[in-house]
Amino acid sequence: MARHGGRGWYGRVLAAAVGVTAVAAATSVWTAQAGVVDRQGAGNSRPSAGSSGPARITTVSEEIVHASDKGAHAVNITIDDGPDPTWTPEVLQVLKEYGVKATFCMVGPQAEAHPDLVKAVVAAGHRLCDHTVSHDTTMDKKSEAYQSQEILNAASMITKASGGVRPEYYRAPGGAFTPYSRHLAASQGMRPLGWNVDSKDFELPGTDAIIATVKSELSNGPTILFHDAGGDRSETVAALREILPWLKQQGYSFGFPVR
Prior knowledge:
By secondary structure, this protein is an alpha/beta fold.
């Protein structure tokens, strides 16, 4: 996986608004919201209807997943860095128009700031993914305590913003996974999530270039990376309007990453 650079926008915003708590506090908050971890794999990551308490967590594989749950001729649409009040609604509208479900990898404070959008993502049948607190692409060079804070605090923020639906995946910013972060995420029911096709929409190369990149790299595998925050995402929205029907014309179905 390619490591993205040029993501200082989020660090600057975060530094002005968010402090990082001690890892013990993060763990206790997440545990209080998440409920008991089922080390045997029973339960699920969504609260059941009519349940009076938190759902039991399913421990998942800590291997980085790329495959689609819809099989070999399917793709997984993944959307990173939001939610954003301008661009997430537009992305949601395009997905709705074409009947496509996606996985939204959310940055914790963004979810905390826009709970209505997190709830809209869930209500539309999409899935949630933990994309850390500060989108630090050097996480793999940091301490385990720091990694815990980033992952667990973000998971707590996303869960609260969603109204109780926990993230089902964890995507390290820039692919900066470590064995520790993968194990921690998996123990909390979040499958580490990679990608095969980087649309490079974050670089604002133009709509045509985004489309061409996706088409040329699709043979790499099923999981495609787009963004709905971090700047002007109009090119992404326009590209999705062409890519989604094109994928359908090629006979692809749309799924979620395997858990």
